[in-house]
Q: What sequence folds into this?
């Protein structure tokens, strides 16, 4: 479940960047434009965010095979917020990996 929240976060960041606005600037005026962009690009954005999440987990656990990592261990990393702190809040990482 935590990973789905992170995927949503990453997709939201992609939408805001492509729209050229901040979260605070979303209004009833520009909401439909943002929603339409999402509807037209959601498969690509989800795929991109999913691949970024796989890369994050491989790097975080220093392991190329995610099947070797216990699911409880992955869930704990999300619950502790470690992944968010190390990757998703890091603007330089986002620019390199989420463009």
A:
């Amino acid at each position: 479940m935590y990973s789905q929240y992170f995927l949503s976060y990453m997709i939201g960041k992609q939408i805001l960047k492509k729209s050229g606005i901040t979260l605070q600037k979303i209004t009833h005026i520009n909401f439909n434009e943002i929603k339409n962009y999402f509807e037209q690009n959601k498969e690509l954005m989800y795929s991109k965010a999913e691949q970024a999440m796989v890369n994050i987990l491989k790097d975080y656990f220093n392991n190329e095979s995610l099947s070797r990592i216990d699911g409880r261990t992955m869930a704990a990393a999300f619950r502790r917020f470690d992944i968010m702190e190390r990757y998703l809040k890091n603007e330089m990482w986002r620019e390199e990996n989420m463009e």
